[in-house]
Amino acid sequence: MGLGSSMNNAYWKHRAANAKSDFEKVGWLEGTGEQFRDHHIAVSSVVQAFCKNGVVLDVGCGFGRFCVPVVLAGGHWIGVDQCEAWEAEWHARPEYDGVRGSCEFLIADCSDPSAWFHRFSKVDVILASGVVGNMGWTVDRFMQEYRPALSDGGVFVVSSGFNLIEVRL
């Protein structure tokens, strides 16, 4: 099921407006440019809707912006990035102090997932926010490479830039 460009922009602005106050209370949007705030909130709302107290794999997670909304939804967050500086930033952010117990941060090459899939069991949501294009991959290739990590009934949530959200079962 693709939701991407056919998604109603007004709907996501409404979701973002309603979710914004809850997310801002825990400070996870600090340092986010205004142009990306609504997008990050919309992506988080989609991930929370599919998380269902499950496990979310955040590919190319950067400093782990989505760990807070995943944990708030009762889920377990696994962030993967190849940049050690992002992991250090994730550990340094005080707004993540209350959620780190339900999180893991893995330093690994996102373009070679089969090398590190064995470290965890299957996940319920695979999130790729702004990373697929940076890898030089298409969404279809990303899904093909990462599908072995997805549990039955799991979903891919892929966003690009700050204007496209695609959910595929």
Major beta sheet summary: 6 strands, mixed
**So, the CATH homologous superfamily?**
Vaccinia Virus protein VP39
Number of domains: 1
CATH class: Alpha Beta
Helix content: 25-40%
Average pLDDT level: 78
Order of helices and strands: HHEHEHEEHHEE
Shape: globular
What's the architecture in CATH terms? 3-Layer(aba) Sandwich
Distance between the termini: 6 Å
Q: CATH topology, anyone?
A: Rossmann fold
Low-confidence stretches: 1-16, 19-28
Beta content comes to: 15-25%
- How many individual β-strands? 6
Largest beta sheet: strand ordering: 3-2-1-4-5-6
What structural class is derived from the secondary structure elements?
A: alpha/beta
- Please count the helical segments: 6
The Rg value, from CA coordinates, equals 15 Å
Commentary on this structure:
The protein is 37% helix and 23% strand. With 169 residues, the chain is an alpha/beta fold. The protein has a single domain, classed as Vaccinia Virus protein VP39 (Rossmann fold), CATH 3.40.50. The chain has a 6-stranded mixed β-sheet with strand order 3-2-1-4-5-6, with helices on both faces. Strand 2 (76-81), helix 4 (84-92) and strand 3 (103-107) form a beta-alpha-beta unit. The termini are close together. Residues 1-16 and 19-28 have low confidence and may be disordered.
Short synopsis of the structure:
This protein is an alpha/beta fold and 169 residues long. The chain is 37% helix and 23% strand. The protein has a 6-stranded mixed beta sheet with strand order 3-2-1-4-5-6, sandwiched between helices.
